[in-house]
Write a structure and sequence with these properties.
Chain lengths: ~120, ~120
DNA sequence: CAACTCCGACAGTTGACGCTAACGTTCGTC
DNA sequence: GACGAACGTTAGCGTCAACTGTCGGAGTTG
């Protein structure tokens, strides 16, 4: 896959930065179980509704939140699609890191045993 | 359920906050492919070695980096284990969000069609 | 021991982020 | 049309993190 896409990198950055805040993660967990209006979400925390509104904006801008209008209220729920890019990023990093670790361990063991390590640039 | 462990939450928070910075993600990608000394890592960016050193400290403190001494140099490589908690967190969120979305869609369709919703709540 | 290299630690500055308070907008009701 | 409710938006403030420059420690070399 084209892992050099700046679009995907930007999306991953947004999602990661949004998830880096504990409050936002809590909000996301809250709306992952059920659809809730902004007021009810705000009542679950000890901060003002404004702060929650901003957090909701960040999450929505990061593609992690889905908004639905219902009269004066706006219902929010988590958007699983927003986590796909992040999971792909983590998966790729995980695989590469494991491969590198195994390769380095083998190379070091080769050096320690006999010292015929190749491609030790 | 072991999902309420504050230890895991703290580890996830540290890893997430560390990965939220694009520079640190680039560093992690760099050392995911091969083991590199701090100087070589610093030369790959347009910032001072001090900044890179601090980034390395953050990554190491978050459990995402592995340090190995080699004379005056210190080789760094990515640590795949540090990403395990994060992947678990994302996986759980993903599953919950998908289930909730499907449930809500079914409920709404039931209301729209005829209104014989069987109280899936 | 002295000189050089590589690297981390400390203090200071600047930009970004989160929180609060006041206001504007949209929708529902009388 | 007027009033109230729910929510987002803007401006201001405080705080945290990233970046820079300088210094000190650890290790190799002569």
């Amino acid at each position: 896959m084209s892992g050099d896409d700046p679009r995907a990198e930007q999306a991953t950055d947004d999602a990661l930065r949004a998830l880096a805040e504990p409050r936002r993660r809590a909000i996301l967990r809250l709306v992952a179980d059920a659809e809730l209006p902004a007021g009810q979400i705000a009542e679950a925390f000890d901060v003002t509704r404004t702060a929650i509104s901003q957090h909701l904006s960040v999450l929505k801008n990061a593609g992690l939140l889905h908004e639905r209008r219902d009269g004066t209220r706006r219902l929010y729920r988590a958007r699983a699609e927003g986590l796909a890019g992040l999971q792909a990023f983590l998966d790729q990093m995980w695989a590469t890191s494991l491969q590198t670790a195994a390769r380095l361990v083998e190379a070091e063991r080769g050096v320690t045993d006999g010292g015929h390590a190749d491609a030790a640039g």
